[in-house]
């Protein structure tokens, strides 16, 4: 069988959630963000490992229903929040029926909510009201956020005021303080007439950089998966473990002569006799074609792991690596990202971030779940 494999480490997910919980006050709840199929990890793999979270956040209704299915299989219930809210009145009715929490960020969603009220004791009866404090993506502006909160509260809703940082990964960026001040000001103004109003400000980066501003709910995404949330520290330095290993195998080995060139475009040329290996993974699996200076980790016949450079261009199904002078055979295991190299190293070789590499994996690789040890 061709070997291109995504392995999900449930223990690492559970560990990373605990790292986040250790950063937050016991009164702060953690919404585990599992949108985009749990950042490419698969909700079926991620949700069971994250059951210590207080709820799950998704982007849309189909994702919420997928999480609900996994929870049903586990015979458990947990709040599920649609972080962009519903896209139609029909979806709003489904949200009521399924008791999903919903963001309201614009007037059509507000009108649907005023048209049909969920039961008073339901989770759905609490609206995640989105305030645009400076990112200019979603939410009501400063001049009408209080008015929108009033309308909802007068209609019988509870409110969680929420906003999203634009630059939380860079603690020094001046926009952070602007967003924090706007948010705290509006939250206080709403609490003046509705004291049970809650707040939710921080994503992963905010959790680490703005510990004084966690409020009632934090929304943790990338840190759960073990990629770096903030600029000044690596994921490892923050105690986060990679939740995914992407691996393949050496599928062929060649002895090159001086002057031979490798791969599409003949971009790399041997200046002496060389041994190279062909790795059974490519951009058709989601490994980025645009990497420059990336390496992979290959285990030799003695079990020693070597860092080996990619030679030439990554193709759809394969690429070549430098294994000159190493005791590496066909079938040798190759790690593309995991403990080493770390996904954040490969992301920087590809001019992107760990988030994108996780999410752009395709359906082709084999998938394997390394189960929670507490369930073993
Ligand atoms: C995705 C998302 C998060 C999580 O962000 P991370 O940077 O992955 O922690 C938090 N809040 C909102 C609104 C999101 O869309």
UniProtKB/TrEMBL annotation:
Annotated catalysed reactions: L-alanine = D-alanine
HAMAP family according to UniProt: Ala_racemase
SMART domains reported for this sequence: Ala_racemase_C
Family statement drawn from the similarity comment of this UniProt entry: Belongs to the alanine racemase family.
EC number(s) recorded for this UniProt protein: 5.1.1.1
Span of domain Alanine racemase C-terminal: 243-370
NCBIfam families, sorted: alr (TIGR00492)
Modified residues (N6-(pyridoxal phosphate)lysine): 35
Known role: Catalyzes the interconversion of L-alanine and D-alanine. May also act on other amino acids.
Pathway info: Amino-acid biosynthesis; D-alanine biosynthesis; D-alanine from L-alanine: step 1/1
Top EC class, one word: isomerase
Protein name: Alanine racemase
């Amino acid at each position: 069988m061709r070997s291109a494999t995504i392995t999900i480490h449930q223990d690492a997910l559970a560990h990373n959630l605990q790292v986040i919980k250790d950063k937050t006050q016991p009164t702060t709840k953690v919404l585990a963000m599992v949108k985009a199929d749990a950042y490419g990890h698969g909700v079926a793999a991620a949700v069971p490992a994250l059951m210590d979270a207080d709820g799950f956040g998704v982007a849309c209704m189909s994702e919420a229903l997928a999480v609900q299915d996994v929870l049903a299989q586990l015979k458990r219930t947990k709040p599920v929040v649609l972080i962009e809210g519903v896209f139609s009145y029909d979806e709003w009715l489904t949200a009521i029926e399924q008791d999903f929490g919903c963001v309201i960020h614009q007037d059509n969603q507000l009108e649907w909510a005023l048209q049909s009220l969920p039961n008073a004791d339901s989770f759905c009866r609490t609206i995640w009201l989105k305030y645009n404090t400076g990112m200019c993506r979603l939410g009501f502006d400063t001049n009408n956020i209080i008015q929108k909160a009033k309308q909802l509260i007068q209609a019988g809703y509870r409110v969680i005021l929420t906003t999203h940082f634009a630059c939380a990964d860079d603690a020094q960026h001046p926009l952070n303080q602007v967003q924090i001040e706007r948010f705290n000001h509006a939250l206080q103004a709403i609490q003046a007439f509705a004291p049970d109003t809650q707040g939710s400000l921080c994503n992963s980066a905010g959790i680490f950089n703005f510990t004084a501003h966690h409020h009632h709910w934090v929304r943790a995404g990338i840190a759960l998966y073990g990629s770096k949330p903030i600029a000044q520290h690596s994921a490892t330095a923050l105690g986060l473990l990679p939740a995914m290993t992407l691996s393949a195998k050496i599928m062929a080995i060649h002895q090159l002569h001086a002057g031979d060139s490798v791969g599409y475009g003949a971009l790399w040329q041997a200046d002496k006799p060389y041994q190279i290996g062909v790795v059974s993974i490519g951009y058709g699996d989601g490994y980025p074609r645009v990497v420059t200076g990336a390496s992979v980790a290959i285990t030799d016949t003695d079990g020693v792991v070597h860092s080996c450079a990619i030679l030439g261009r990554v193709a759809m199904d394969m690429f070549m690596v430098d294994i000159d002078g190493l005791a590496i055979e066909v079938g040798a295991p190759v790690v593309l990202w995991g403990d080493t190299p770390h996904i954040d190293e490969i992301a920087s070789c590809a001019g992107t971030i760990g988030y994108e590499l996780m999410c752009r994996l395709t359906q082709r690789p084999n998938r394997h779940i390394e189960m929670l040890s507490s369930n073993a």
